[in-house]
Fold this protein.
Amino acid sequence: MKGEGDTGGEVAEYSLDKVNGGDNVSKWPELESKYFMHTVNRVPVTLVRGEGARVWDDNGREYLDFVAGWAVNSLGHSHPVVAKALAEQAHTLIQVSNQFYTIPQLQLAELLVQHSCLDKVFISNSGAEANEGAVKLARRYGKLNRKGAYEVISATGSFHGRTLSMVAASGQAKHQEPYQPLPAGFVNVEYNNIAAIKSATTDQTCAILLEPLQGEGGVNIPDDGYLKTVREWCDEKGILLILDEVQTGIGRLGTLFAYEQHGIEPDIMTLAKGLGSGVPIGAIMVKESANVFVPGDHGSTFGGNPLVCAAAYATLKYVIDNNIAGNVKKVGQYFIGRLEELKKKYSFVTDVRGRGLLLAIEFDREIADDLLKACLENGLLVNRLNPSALRFMPPLIIGNGEVDEAISILDKVLATV
Ligand SMILES: Cc1ncc(COP(=O)(O)O)c(C=O)c1O
């Protein structure tokens, strides 16, 4: 239905090009170099379609996708439940101002609260933005409860996003150096080192921000008891514990949220990636005791709009109703067992690690780029974690069969090293 002043043409005229034309030479990399900022060295594949754990390129070639949009497509590609929610909502109401109540946003918030230890929700558009909001919330808390304390302690090797403040929070020189000077108020200390946290805590500290397992920074698992001790320290000092579950949340590690595996509860938790199974969404969740925002303190034009919330609601409900986290636990254990077999077989494999379906394999040499290319040629998409490690973060709905398929490609590829 058009507005009165709309004199536009047929709907079909506004469709995008779907395929390459079948000449086996992709025209898209050329368009990219001409028109798109060069912020990433892309894998030379143009993906046009996905279903379940599989994607297809513009020449019709099929790949098993163990990257899943960087741990995003929790229900795989174009899951019917998500597609239906999006299509219905797209034909109903896509965006209105957050001055109005909207049903998908509020039903999503209810579901998140009912299935977590947190009490209130704010919806953002990404992980970085959720973390920004979490830090604002912690600073507001510091102003009200800790005489203006504003500093946030975070960990080296962490990754919290690409905004300036989140670059300051993420303790990685390669992300920080190009943008100095960074916003003040962030102190980076060694991950998995409780003494470092204690000695960095001052009267100015309002919160500690940690990933329960560092994803981007290397699939680094903290020692048992680390997060529990951090929780106790926060309680002792009256400071907030913010858990960044942007990558670990929504079943990725085999429980709906990673904090469940540590016997603790955060004061603030952030989510994104898997929450919408592909639509851009993030969430800040907070305990009532730290729920200090008042009207005007925070906001977003798009955050929590009906379209993304309908998709996220469908995703989360499906994950919960079908015990997808239980599947992750089972398949993850099988996967890690099969990776261990590769470690036994190939002496240059030095480590296999991770939890659930966030796993990494490490080598004693810098072969990750070559292996990624070889996997690609054999129809498997993997992530290069660093020059000598690969990361696997497939959709959460995979079974042992897909793991076997990936392992047999990896085996073939490793045999050529
Ligand atoms: C733990 C963690 N936090 C935050 C982010 C940033 O999320 P986004 O890219 O949606 O801003 C990421 C992205 O990889 C992440 O892994």
User: Anything to note?
Assistant: The longest strand covers residues 349-355. The CA atoms of residues 116 and 260 lie 9 Å apart.
